[in-house]
Specification:
32% of the residues lie in helices and 36% in strands. By secondary structure, the protein is α+β, with helices and mostly antiparallel strands. The strands form two sheets. An eight-stranded antiparallel sheet has the order 8-13-15-14-10-11-9-12, covered by helices on one side. The N and C termini lie far apart (94 Å). About 3% of the residues have low confidence. It comes from Chryseobacterium taeanense. Keywords: Membrane, Transmembrane, Transmembrane helix. This is Activator of Hsp90 ATPase homolog 1-like protein.
Length: 346
C-alpha cells in the first residue's frame, strides 16, 4: 500500500513538473511564417487559393487522404466561401472559412479542427516577383492550447511546413497542365505550318488497332478516349486540370491503310501503379515538329497531314510519327479541334 502511495506521489510530482514547464516555457499559441516562390503569374496562382474547389484539389491536407469527404458551400469562391470535411478513417473533421480577400494580394482563412472552438488563422500574401513568378507567404496563428496540450506546439510548424512542401509540388503539377492548355489555346493559328520543339511527355493510355473504314476510326477514338478519361478521373481520382490534352500517336501515312494502329493517351506528371492491364504508360520523346492546327470533320485532317509530309520532303527532312493533340475532347458527331505534329529530323 505504501508503495502505491509513493508511486502516486511521484506521478503527481511529474505531472506538476510537466504542467509547470509547459506553463512557463511554452507559449499557449504559436505564430510562424513560411515563404515559397512558384513560377506562374500571380493571377493564376491566386485563383487556386480563393476558389476552394481548386484549393482542395492540390492542398496536401485534403489530397493525402482517400477517405476524406468534403462539402462546399456557396459562394464557392472568394470572401464568404467555406467548406466542411470529415475523414472517417483518420477520425477527424473540421470547417474552413475564407474570411477576407484582396484580389491577387491577400487572403485570410480560418480553420476549425475537430471540436476546437478556437480557429487556426492563416493569412496568405501574394507578390508578383516577375510576370511569370509569384512569392507566396503564409502567416499562421494557432489557437490557444491548454497547459497539458501545449507540447503540440513543438511540432505544429514542422507539420505545417511539410504540408506546404507537398502541396507546392501538387500545385506546380496542376498549374503546369492548366497553363499549358491556356498557352496552346492562345497560340492557335489554323492552316499555317509552324516549327515547334516539344518536350518529353509521360502519357497514360491504350494501344489500339482498328478499321479505317468510313467513320469507324473516329468512333473508335471517341470510345477509347472515354475509357481513358473515365479511368483517370474515376478510378485514379484525377481532376481535369491535373492532366493535359489527349494525344493520339500513329504512323504519319497510315491514313491510307485499311487498318490503323495507334496509341491514345493523356499527359500526366508522374508514373504510379495501375489497377487495369488495359492501360499503360508511354514516354513521348522530345522532338522537333512541323505543326499545323486543324478544325473540321475528322476525315478532313488528311489534307493537313499531307501538307506536313510535303513540307518535310521539300525541306529534305525525314519524319516519324504524327501526333494528333485534341484541343477539344473528341466526341461523337462533332467536328474536331486538333493540333497535328509531324516529328522531323535530318
Amino acid at each position: 500500500m505504501r508503495f502505491l502511495k509513493i508511486i502516486a506521489v511521484i506521478v503527481i510530482l511529474l505531472i506538476g513538473a510537466y504542467a509547470a514547464s509547459m506553463y512557463y516555457f511554452v507559449d499557449e499559441s504559436k505564430d510562424f511564417r513560411i515563404e515559397k516562390e512558384i513560377d506562374y503569374p500571380v493571377e493564376k496562382v491566386f485563383n487556386q487559393f480563393n476558389n476552394l474547389q481548386n484549393f482542395t484539389r492540390w492542398n496536401n491536407f485534403f489530397t493525402s487522404s482517400k477517405s476524406i469527404d468534403i462539402d462546399y458551400y456557396t459562394p464557392y469562391e472568394g470572401q464568404g466561401s467555406s467548406i466542411s470535411y470529415t475523414d472517417s478513417k483518420n477520425d477527424t473533421d473540421g470547417e474552413m472559412f475564407l474570411r477576407y480577400e484582396n484580389p491577387n494580394k491577400t487572403l485570410r482563412y480560418q480553420l476549425f479542427e475537430d471540436k476546437n472552438e478556437s480557429p487556426t488563422s492563416v493569412d496568405v500574401k501574394f507578390k508578383a516577383v516577375s510576370p511569370e513568378k509569384t512569392k507566396i507567404t503564409w502567416i499562421v496563428h494557432t489557437p490557444k492550447l491548454s497547459v497539458l496540450r501545449r507540447v503540440e506546439n513543438f511540432w505544429t510548424e514542422d507539420r505545417f511546413a511539410e504540408n506546404i512542401d507537398k502541396s507546392m509540388v501538387n500545385l506546380n503539377n496542376v498549374l503546369g497542365n492548366k497553363v499549358e492548355k491556356d498557352n496552346q489555346m492562345a497560340a492557335i493559328k489554323y492552316d499555317s505550318i509552324m516549327v515547334e520543339n516539344e518536350e518529353e511527355k509521360l502519357l497514360l493510355g491504350i494501344n489500339v488497332s482498328t478499321s479505317n473504314k468510313k467513320d469507324a476510326l473516329y468512333k473508335n477514338i471517341v470510345m477509347n478516349y472515354n475509357k481513358i478519361y473515365n479511368y483517370t478521373t474515376m478510378d485514379l481520382g484525377k481532376k481535369d486540370d491535373e492532366f493535359g490534352f489527349p494525344v493520339l500517336i500513329t504512323d504519319a501515312d497510315n491514313y491510307k491503310d485499311k487498318e490503323v494502329s495507334y496509341f491514345l493517351g493523356i499527359p500526366l506528371s508522374k508514373k504510379f501503379g495501375l489497377t487495369d492491364n488495359n492501360f499503360s504508360f508511354r514516354t513521348q520523346a522530345a522532338t522537333q515538329n512541323y505543326v499545323m492546327y486543324y478544325k473540321g470533320n475528322y476525315a478532313g485532317r488528311v489534307k493537313a497531314i499531307q501538307q506536313l509530309i510535303q513540307k518535310a520532303k521539300k525541306d529534305e527532312m525525314r519524319f516519324n510519327d504524327i501526333r494528333q493533340t485534341f484541343i477539344e475532347r473528341p466526341a461523337d458527331d462533332q467536328d474536331v479541334n486538333m493540333k497535328l505534329s509531324l516529328s522531323v529530323f535530318k
